[in-house]
User: What shape does this take?
Amino acid sequence: MPITLLTSAPPALTAEELAALSTSTPATFEGIAPLLRHREEQVTVTVEPAFQGFEGGKGTLWITEGAVSFLASDSSRGVSIPYPHITLHAISRAPLRSGSADNGGGGPCIYCQVDESDEAAEGAEDDYEDTSREVIIIPSDPSTLDKIFETLSTCAALHPPPSSASSGLFGGLDPSSMVTAADFADGSEIEQMTEEEEASMMTSAGRAAMAHLQSIISFPSSTTSSSAPQTNGATTNGAATSEEE
Assistant: This one.
């Protein structure tokens, strides 16, 4: 997705709206707005060099699972930056520039490097024209800095570079780190993720689809009914059975 300029609030679903959406099957899962993870008022944003049509201001910051967006209150202009275009983000406890937070100067902030080229979004490593910009996010309340950074990091992790999943024989993975059946020959069990951990790795559209499937699928009981068919050493209807001696 390209970086886009805004003249109104970006599309975003609250947790309540996502829950309501999950109660029925949408006509299509395309076009579902991303889940809003954090919203912060009274945030100052500066961009260097400025985008054509937006150079920063003071207004509202939205962090969704799809992009980081900002809309200035005075000009009703802003920008939405999808995560693949954010090549670096970090916390600065000290001011990066002289001046006050209101004019984009001093104050603890989130520093981002943004590349608006298509090559950056696609994870290409070839040489191309430098289109990087510095985006500095300064909240009026410094105590919210860690929350903004953690939320941004969590959402960015949902969008790994495409090249990291397709490079090499094992898709960029270290073969020595892979889990095989031999690793569990001693009877140890695979560590299961909790539902909350699984949900945090899914997009809002994915969670809506999963919630709907769970509402219409009847999962079998974990206990074995005396009338359930059994096979020797097999698994039937989700219940383990064994051969009687």
Confidence is low (pLDDT under 50) at residues 223-245. The first helix runs from residue 15 to 21.
